[in-house]
Structure formats: structure tokens, C-alpha cells
Amino acid sequence: MSFRFIIALASLLSVATVSAAQEGQEKIDTLATATVTSAIDRNINFTQTGLTKIDGSAFRRGFAVFSSPDVLKTLQTLTGVSSGTEMLSNLYVHGGDGSDNLFLLDGVPLYQICHLGGIFSSFNTDVVEGIDFYKSGFPARYGGRTSSVVDVATKDGDFKGYHGTVGIGLLDGRLQFEGPIIKDRTSFNVAMRRSWIDVISAPACAIMNSMNKEYGEKQNFGYSFTDLNARVTHILNRGSRLTANLYWGNDGLRITQEFEGHDQDGSLSDIDIEDTRFSWGNLLGSLNWQKEFSDKLDMRLLGFYSGSRSDIRMNTTLEYYRTDYTDVFRQDTHNRNRVNDGGVSADFNWYPHHNHHIRFGGTYILHSYSPSHLYSQYDTDSGEVLTDINKNDDIHSFGNEMGIYAEDEMSLTRWMKVNLGLRYSLYEAEEKIWNYFEPRAALKFQVSPNVGIKASYSEMSQFSHLVAATYIDLPTNSWLPSTSKVAPMRSRQVAGGIYGRLPHNMHLNVEGWYKTMSNLIEYKGMNSFFPPLTDWEDDFKTGIGKSYGLEVDFGYETEKTSVSAFYTLSWNWRKFDDIWPDWYLDRNDNKHKITVVANHRFTEKFEMYASWNYHTGNRMTVASQYLPAEEGAWTGKFLYESPNNAKMPDYHRLDVGFNFYRKTKRGNMSVWNLSVYNAYCRINPLYASVVKDKSKLAFEGLGIGIIPIVPTFSYTFRF
Q1: Closest C-alpha among 386, 388, 387, 256 to residue 315
Q2: What DSSP element (H or E) covers 544?
Q3: How confident is the model at residue 4 (pLDDT cuts 50, 70, 90)?
Q4: How confident is the model at residue 379 (pLDDT cuts 50, 70, 90)?
Q5: What is the C-alpha separation between 695 and 338, in angstroms, rounded?
Q6: Are 136 and 495 in contact (CB under 8 A)?
Q7: Which residues lie below 8 Å from residue 489, measured CB to CB, with a gap of 6+?
């Protein structure tokens, strides 16, 4: 199959076949309105294990870090999910890495899910209609990742009237507006966010530069992120609608440092200027067509584009002034990486009986990876190029990914429901074809109207891999495909539990899982800002992993009060023969995790919420002993008991928030929010360093924390 033919076919289908795959929820699993608590309470109704449905309103009422509600930080509170580094929006689900999660925005894969290295997620809660979060029992219609699925759907605009939202927070501002283009026929929904960290930092830099003027130092810092969501929905006729979705997100960072040197007589001797610019983000576009042929058959067709990019440019200028001559040295380093996906998908729902739901369909994606284009040169004032270094602009890979599936959800008896599915996944790259049959099965037995027992089995494959020098979401990270040398990652997971409603508006869910992972990769290239990727296929270590644990969800909910408590007991193991001959605990092995979330509405005008988070510390590798250099050797040796042999201090934090509501005479709503992150100012370790103990022969890890109590506020006006 030629690439030229595939590209032409994908282009034709993207225009001719469009879908509304995420427009409406499936008839069996629909959740119209719910908070986080009630969504978990309703888990008894779903066949799949590990499924949480969250209505968009839950995010807009929940805790706001830096005054902006955050989708991913809400998901971090759930069982089986580790957050990794404090304040960042990473998800480590059932032992997987952050890159092992499939993020879908209106059915389109999203690569860069965060702004500011993970402080903000890329999902604007003003337009989020709801989220389906899967962490164990995966339906056959999902594929391409091994740990979890975060399926985010945005809202249609209002077909009858115009209204919107304006929000002003500590670090960002939001604007959302929706309404009819053609009343009762066509609607739009547009939302935009922008941070103003660059506006805040400008006067701070000016003050600092004035203080350091006499020393010849000048520094400027500016960061901002912007994202835009747009959705247009047109009702073609009864049972048929067309939707166009657009998402654009961009982060920009610029750091400039200037230093002036002077001779003893005060004359200018040299100037050193370093200018670094970062730009990264996403662009997503899709056309969706939903057609309901009858009460028993509907179709959803989707054509989409998803692009991720990052550009980094570093310029250095050195000017040396002498009595009889001037030297000028310039160096320009530019690195960029790209991921471009174009795809089509088709999904069909058939209801032969009210207790019988058959889904089938398929997806095709053409992947284009340009993981690194690193170009560096330096010259003199004459303009003569002296040399080019690290010029590798030939790293470019294509891949063809295809998946077809069928799943059947049926009620065998009044008390028993089953979901049986099979997915065939294929990936072609460099004349190598990887293909797998992935069975999926879920069973629910309703013991009584208030008690259900579930079990599931899932196999998943992942064909994209993230190369990262650190655990922070940086623009230097690169996505790379599976090739003839780099096999896809695989996972197998079994899960089961009991789910029950208790008296007095309470519920209790207990679920366990066991998961195995194969073809895991660890990047063994240089731990540098620009990881060298020229021979990237040979720079991976391959290993296996396993994760298992127990999750407990407890909730209580009344009209004014909701309380949720989540507990996770888990183990997360890795085995890389090139690193260590035996099993060792993963960095994000948090054996115990507890989250308690409470919300109480005192009056129609005042609401308070609180969240307490606890987990055992992340792990780090610390040398057990240092042997001095032997005679004739340059350096000594570090001895290790095992990787990740030390545990950082336990983590705990209390967040509180207050919402003040005021309704205007015209029916508009204004909301003042006051949130306090880390209310009792617990200095939790953000990172760790290794130091020698008093014996000078052994070492210990030292956790270092820098984030104190952080009060924030925001104002939101809904009209």
C-alpha cells in the first residue's frame, strides 16, 4: 500500500465523510447531569469496570488552582491515579506512564494536554459537556494507548438565545460566548483563554533591571498561553446533524539575558546577549456527521486533523571591544519537532432489541513524525559561517494505523449484562507491520437492585512513544513511532469489584485490578535539554511491568452536601534487564493514596468545598555506598542496592475554596471564588537531591519543597 494512495484516500474521506461522533452520548451509557459524586454513585449502572462519568458542571464548581478549574486535577483525585510531581497535570493510571493515556477532544487525539509544563490543562471547562474516564474495562471502540482513556466532549451552542461567560483569575482570563446562527437550526459556541503571566512579569523585570543597572545586568522574562475552542452545529434535518470543531492552543516563552562588562577606566569592554524563545502547542480540526436512520440504527462519521509542534530557538551574541579591533561571535541553535495526524473513523450503533446494543466501526490514521530538526551554527562579524553542528534534518517517519472493532452489549437475564468486544489493531511503518487482536470483555451481575458485581478483561496496544529528558511536560519532549526495531507497548488487565448503594444516600464501591505491561521503553540517551535522536531506535531499553491494587470509593450526597472519600492500595513494578536483573518499584509507586472531597451549599449565595490529599512518597535512586578510586583509576564506584531504592517523604495537602453567588435583576449570575491551595502550608518535596551522609561513604536522598500556601481568587460573570 503506497503512501501516496493512502494520503489521497484520507484527504478524500476527510472532506466527503464527516461525523458527529461525540455529539450525543450512547443510549445505554448516557449521563445527562451529574456531579463527580453522583457519577461515581451511578457506577453500579455501567457494565464496564473502572469507568467514571463526570458532567461538565462538576468541573466548573470544583476546586480551582490559580483560579482556573482544571479537568486533569479533578481526575487526579480518583482512585488508581497518581499525580506525579506536585501541581502538574500528569496522570499515572494503574502503573502506566503519563504518555500511556489516550486523550480525546471530541473524538480527536490530543498530544499536548497541558500548558506551562503541566500547571494548566488544555481543556477549557467553560465548553466541556462531560468526560468519560476509563482505567480498566476498555470498550473495543478505543485503542492506541495502554493505561487509560480520557474522552472529552464539548457542548453545542444554544440554539435559541445568546449568553456567555467572562472569567478573570489570578493568572488567566476566560471568555465564552454561544448562541444561534439560525434559530433552532444552527448554533455556535466559542471560548478563549489567555494567561497574563507576561503582563505580571514585565514590571517585575523592569524593577529588577533598574536595581542591577550599575552591574551591567539586564534580564527579561515573558510567558503566556492562549487556547481557542470553536464549535458550530447545524441540524440538517430530523435525525441528522453536522458539527465542525476547532481547537488551537499555543504556549510562548521568551528569556533574554544581557550582560555588559567594563574595563577599569569604565569603558565598555564586552556585551553578552542570550535570547531563548520557546513556542509549542496543538491544532485540532474535525468535521462530524451524525445520522439516525431509525430508532434502531445510527451512524457517526468523523474526519479530523491533529497536529502538535514545538519550536525552540537559542541565540547568543558576544561582542568584544578592543582599542584597535572588535570581535563579534554569534551562535544560533534551532530545534523543532512535529506530529501531524490525519484520519477518518466510522461508528455504527444498532439496537435490534431494547436489551441489545451492537457497536461496530473502524478508524484509520496517517501519522507523520518529525521528532527533531536540530540546527546550530556560529559565525563572526564578517558573516562567514565557520561551521554547522548537529544538523539532522532527515528524521522523518510515516506510519499507518488502522483499527476495526465490534462489541455487543446485551442483557442475558434481568440480573446479568455482558459486553463482549474484539478490536483488530494494525500499524505499518518502514515495511514492518505490527498487528494484534485485542479481546475486551466485561460482565455485570446485579445481585440486588442496590448491589452489583463486575469483572472485566482488556488487551491494549500503543504505537507512539514519548521521549522525555525529565518528568515535566517540556516542549523538548518528542513523540516517536513504533518501527521495525521499536515494538509497540502492550498491556493486559483484569479487574473486578462490588458496587453498592447504601442507606441514607451513601454508596460504597470496591474494585481490584491486576495489570501486566510488555515492551515498555526507557530512553537511554543523554539526559540533555535536546535529547540526541539521530540513532533514537538504538537508544531505548526494553522491559516489562506489572501493577496491581485495590480501590475503595465511598460517597454521601444530599441536596446541599456531598462527601467523597477515595482510597487506593497499589504496587507498581518494573523489570529492565539492562538496568537491573530483578523487579524493582517504579518511581511513581505510591502504595497508599487517600483523597477526601467535601462540598456544602449553606445558602443559595454561599458554598464551601475542601479537599484533603495524601499519598506515600515517590521513589528515587540513591547509591548505598561509594568506593574510592583504586590505584590507577580516575574515579571511584557507586554501589546501588536497586533502582528506586529510597522513598521520599509522604505527601499531604489541604485545599479549601469558597464560592459567593449573586444573581442580578436581569437574571445574570456573578460568582466570586476564593481558593487556598495547601491551606496549612505543608512544604511537600517537589524534587529530591542526593547528599553524602556523615560517613562520606554512603548517601541519602533529600527531599526539597518550595511551594507554600497559595491563595487565589477569581470573578466569573455568566450572562
Answers
A1: 256
A2: strand 540-557
A3: very low
A4: low
A5: 50
A6: yes
A7: 100, 146, 461, 462, 465, 517, 518, 519, 520, 521
Q: How is residue 644 written as a grid cell? A: 528506586
Q: Are 134 and 50 in contact (CB under 8 A)?
A: yes
**Distance between CA atoms of 398 and 482, rounded to whole angstroms?**
10
Task: Give Cβ neighbours of residue 230 (< 8 Å, ≥ 6 apart).
Answer: 188, 189, 190, 191, 245, 246, 247
Q: In this structure, is residue 87 part of a structural domain?
A: yes
Pairwise CA distance, residues 502 & 496, whole Å: 19
SS3 125: coil
Q: What is the CATH number of the domain that holds 81?
A: 2.40.170.20
* Domain assignment present for 715: no
Residue 478 buriedness (CB in 10 A; 0-12 / 13-18 / 19+):
buried
Q: How many residues does the chain have?
A: 719
Q: Is the separation of the CB atoms in 486 and 480 below 8 Å? A: yes
Give me the mean pLDDT over the 670-683 stretch: 92
pLDDT score of 282 more than 90: yes
**Looking up cell 565598555, which residue turns up?**
268
Which of the four pLDDT bands, split at 50, 70 and 90, describes residue 355?
A: confident
Closest CA to 357 of 343, 346, 347: 347
184 by Cβ neighbours in 10 Å (0-12 / 13-18 / 19+) ranks as: exposed
Indicate the average pLDDT of the chain.
84
Distance between CA 557 and CA 598 in Å, rounded? 10
Report yes or no on 664 lying in a domain: yes
Q: Which residues pair with 325 in a beta bridge?
A: none
Q: Is residue 556 part of a domain?
A: yes
Instruction: Give the contacts of 254 (CB within 8 A, at least 6 positions apart).
Output: 220, 221, 222, 223, 275, 276, 277, 278
- Specify the higher pLDDT residue, 267 or 30: 267
The three grid cell numbers given for residue 126, joined into one nine-digit string: 467553560
**CA pair distance 514, 494, nearest whole angstrom:** 5
- What pLDDT band is residue 292 in, cutting at 50, 70 and 90? very high
The radius of gyration of the chain from alpha carbons, rounded to an integer in Å, stands at 27
What are the start-end ranges of the E strands in 381-505? 385-392, 397-411, 416-429, 432-448, 451-462, 464-467, 478-481, 489-502
Higher-confidence residue of 307 and 395: namely 307
pLDDT in tens, 435-450: 999 999 999 999 999 9
Distance CA 35, CA 25 (A): 17
* In contact, 572 and 544? CB cutoff 8 Å: no
* 517 closest CA partner among 219, 95, 162: 95
Which residues contact residue 211 at a Cβ distance below 8 angstroms, ignoring those fewer than 6 apart?
none
Residue range 219-266, pLDDT digits in tens: 888 999 999 999 999 999 888 999 999 999 999 999 998 888 777 776
Q: Residue 547, exposed/middle/buried by CB under 10 A (0-12, 13-18, 19+)?
A: buried
pLDDT bin (cut points 50, 70, 90) of residue 22 is very low
Top pLDDT among 250 and 5 is at 250
Grid coordinates given for 54: 463526570
Domain hosting 370: range is: 3-617+650-680
Whether 457 and 439 have beta carbons less than 8 Å apart is answered as yes
User: At residue 697, does pLDDT exceed 70?
Assistant: no
pTM for the model stands at: 0.88
The three cell numbers locating residue 475: 516542549
Q: How many domains does the chain have?
A: 1
Q: What cell numbers appear for 638 in the block?
A: 557507586
pLDDT at 211: 84
Whether the CB-CB separation of 120 and 87 falls below 8 Å is answered with: no
Residue 15: what pLDDT? 29
Q: What is the pLDDT of residues 522-560, one digit of tens each?
A: 876 555 566 666 677 777 889 999 999 999 999 999 999
